[in-house]
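ugh finaly. both done.
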Amino acid sequence: MKGYLKPDTQKKSKHKTAVIKKTLNPEFNEEFFYEISLSELSNKTLEVTVWDYDLGRSNDFIGGVCLSCHSQGDALRHWMECLKNKGQRVERWHVLTNELPRSVSHD
């Protein structure tokens, strides 16, 4: 899994989990944090992508989700709930889409 808080001009927001081998249905139980003001956060997009790691070949995109003020449905509701509850954990499950985010990095 890779996570980015975009835009990321200084390329410091990347969070990458360990590879979970031998499954196309990985479960990640990881937390990551960003030091950012609420006013900055409202203009950001959190991109989370999941990839199939193949040794010696290109990684295959499995799915992803983007959370921002420009999202729709559950993703937008989750983002707005996060903005309203500063400093608190707001957890929610999301169904990954098969659409690769436009600004995703493949490294």
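ok and the 2nd:
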Amino acid sequence: MHMIPDLRVEDEVAVRASMALVERVRPEDLERPTPCAGWDLAGLLAHMTAQHRGFAASAGGHGTYMDVWRVRPLGGSPAADYADASEQVITAFAAHDVLERMFALPEFGDGVRVPGRRAISFHFIDYVVHGWDIARSLALPFALPADLLQTAVPIAEAIPDDDRRLAPGTAFAPRLPIPDDRDPLERILALVGRSSSWPKD
């Protein structure tokens, strides 16, 4: 297996792209559907905010506490809360030794711990995909640098395509047929069970 690269720069780019989209969310948008089955935009933003806080806590050695991963209802300023959580995780990932730290990821199972390098790869692919989810929900364009998307493809390819994807509330659906074209975003979306034609499916 190839060593997972240091994805902190790419992760920050993806997170900041999502922040720019969240800044455009209006209160009346929160009930919009999203490509995440069962989640409206409010639910997706609450999940994304909680994940930032959980990963930030885990980077600091506090990820075993389930409360830091708890999804909370959106407050009066979802964009401000999301931006605050985003800055927390960006700062936490910037620590000089974070790639070698062990991250507790209790959502993957009791006692699960993975090296920081792998944990950040999980976070990175989540925010590439969830950025697209928000953009699609808002009917806005979504663009990330081509080299970043190329880097994300093997991360998406490595996600197990098994029965866990059928569980309620899971982030990714079973894989769809992989397109033959060379568009890396199209490939990533198919790998995580998203149809690029949503919501016209």
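summary for the 2nd one i guess: The radius of gyration is 16 Å.
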